[in-house]
Amino acid sequence: MAKVTSEKSLNTKATGIIALAVMFSRFLGLAREVLFNALFGASSMGIFLIAFRAPNLLRDLFAEGALSISFITIFSKKMETESDRSAWILASKMMTLTSVLMSIVSLLGIIFAKQLIGILAPGFSPEDAQTTVLLTQIMYPFILLVSLAALVMGMLNSKNVFGMPALASSFFNIGSIMGGALFGWLIDPHFGERSLIGLAIGTIIGGIFQLGIQLPSLRRVGFSFRPDFRWNDSGVRSILILTLPAIIAASAVQINVLINSSFASYIGKEAVTWLNSAFRLMQLPIGVFGVAVATITLPVISRIAATKDHSQFGMTLGRAMRLAVFLTMPAAVGLWFFAKPIISLIYEHGKFHAQDTAQTAFALQFYSLGLVAYSCIKVLSPGFYAIDRKWIPMFVSFLSIGLNIFLNYFLIFILGMEHRGLALATTVSATVNFLVLYFLMENTHKLQTIRFLNSLVRCGIASATLAAVCWVALEFFANFIYSSLFLIRILSLFLAIFFASMAYLFACLILRVEEANKIISAVLHKLPFLRKA
After folding, report:
1. Is the pTM of this model over 0.85?
2. Relative orientation angle of helices 113-120 and 252-267, to the nearest 10 degrees
3. Are 328 and 459 a contacting pair, CB within 8 Å?
4. Distance of alpha carbon 261 from alpha carbon 223, whole angstroms
5. Of 500, 218, 487, nearest to 337 (Cα)?
6. CB neighbour class for 416 (10 Å; exposed up to 12, middle 13-18, buried from 19)
7. Helix 113-120 crosses helix 126-139 at what angle (to 10 degrees)?
8. d(CA 108, CA 55)
9. Backbone angles phi, psi at 112, to 5 degrees
10. How many CA atoms lie within 13 A of 385 on its CB side?
11. Taking Cα atoms as reference points, which of 341, 68, 32 lies closest to residue 209?
12. Distance between CA 440 and CA 429 in Å, rounded?
């Protein structure tokens, strides 16, 4: 009984493990962006980013979206209602099916790369488009590797193994950095546009690393892969039925980012890089907090949904969203105030200039307005698949995507906001997406809305304290934060962020924010000497 109870409650220790692992991965991803921006410049990187957009979108749709959510939902229910052996058999069938389908998708992507780039970057010149097509063709097999990696991650998470799957994307970054820099230099030591081929090769190497690093853990939990082509199976059908609507629903934000790239191609190649660099920084708190909370929540709510008693379902989702709000709201405020100094410190090297910093900062500020909504969508959307209401997120996402397209056109061509309008459109669309999903879920499973609003207000007041500290730092210590000495800049910015974070935490404790008390209690439990003090 103790085991069952623990499996049907949120594992806060696992949240911390995942958060640390994802944080490491996001920092490596950021280091990759910084290195490549400095070596190639905003213009050349714009070409590579558009080329990577197509297979990367499929990664978001399959690996991090539809396939991952659908597989974990059915796989966890099968373990709960049948046996581990039945779940392993289903896993072998899905890995076989995924290998075949994603190989076909990769082949089609290579064949129709020219037409695809014509859609993604209609504003590119013929020369830039030709280079983009070649890079896309090289990188398309990446989707096969990360789709298999997603299935492996789902199996390990369902067996309460979170550390190595969360670290897997770190190995993707390591492989892509090593491979991209090495092959890029071998092709062109001056890192001109021709050396972008090296980055494409590095992407494939990273995908191999991401899959391979998880396989030893998978063997340790008892899985042994055997090709199984018996796809006429109820479990396989259930996963596929869930996957179809989830393809759009689970990745609405990413689809909107892709749409933004298409609009950005009319503004210029540099705009693609500015938006991508800004969203890369956004992915730090989304990945560290939003994805971590969502990862430990999905197996729990899937097991609850598999039983007759759903009384804990809404409470569990509500608790997870309150935790996401507590963690991401201060990050959103901090990114708004410190957008320019952070980007200057991280990105402004080599061929990435002060103008690029300023424009990327504008995009980051508008993206940050939607950070809380982004993270809550990560937690809330999979809940609909767990209770077999799979079509709802899909239709809500249609609304979100349609709204984003309209806002893109209005903000760019009518109001002239350029790439800033694209970031704002994504934020507004994501916020509407979350609000509609929330109210629809609240109608069937009570999410403790009063407690959610209470937490939202209290965290908002605490975030105002954080904002005041940020303003003071920028107003009175700007000479240190923008110092010409790199060490002084990084130390000043670190201290500003630290004091702002402490102000937020203490304000939350004074306001009796439940999540803050739990985190302090957990820290004191792990560090007895602080508890005695």
Report:
1. no
2. 80
3. no
4. 40
5. 500
6. exposed
7. 120
8. 11
9. -105, 25
10. 36
11. 32
12. 17
Quote the DSSP letter at residue 214: T
Nearest to 439 by CA among 333, 533, 352, 314: 314
pLDDT tens sequence for the chain (533 residues) = 334 344 445 555 556 667 677 778 878 887 888 888 888 887 788 888 888 877 877 776 665 556 777 787 788 888 878 888 888 999 999 999 999 999 998 999 999 999 888 887 887 888 888 999 999 999 999 989 988 998 898 888 888 787 788 788 889 999 999 998 899 899 988 888 888 999 999 999 999 999 999 999 998 888 888 889 989 888 888 888 877 766 666 555 566 666 777 788 788 778 888 888 888 888 778 766 766 677 667 667 777 777 766 677 878 888 888 888 898 899 999 999 999 999 998 888 777 888 889 999 999 999 999 999 988 888 888 778 777 777 787 788 788 888 989 999 999 888 888 888 888 998 998 899 899 999 998 888 788 889 889 989 999 999 999 999 999 999 988 899 888 888 898 999 999 999 999 999 999 999 988 877 777 776 666 555 555 55
> What value does the CA radius of gyration of the chain take, rounded to a whole number of Å?
23
Q: Are 324 and 293 in contact (CB under 8 A)?
A: yes
Structural tokens at position 496: 């500003």
CA distances from 8 to 76, 323, 324, 496 (A): 11, 17, 19, 39
How far is 251 from 508, CA to CA, in rounded Å?
A: 32
The C-alpha atoms of residue 254 and residue 119 are separated, in whole angstroms, by 16
Amino acid at 190: H
HEC readout, 249-307: HCCHHHHHHHHHHHHHHHHCHHHHHHHHHHHHHHHHHHHHHHHHHHHHHHHHHHHHHCC
**Residue type at 100?**
V
> d(Cα 52, Cα 142) in Å, to the nearest integer?
10
- Residue with structure tokens 């209770």? 387
Length of the chain: 533
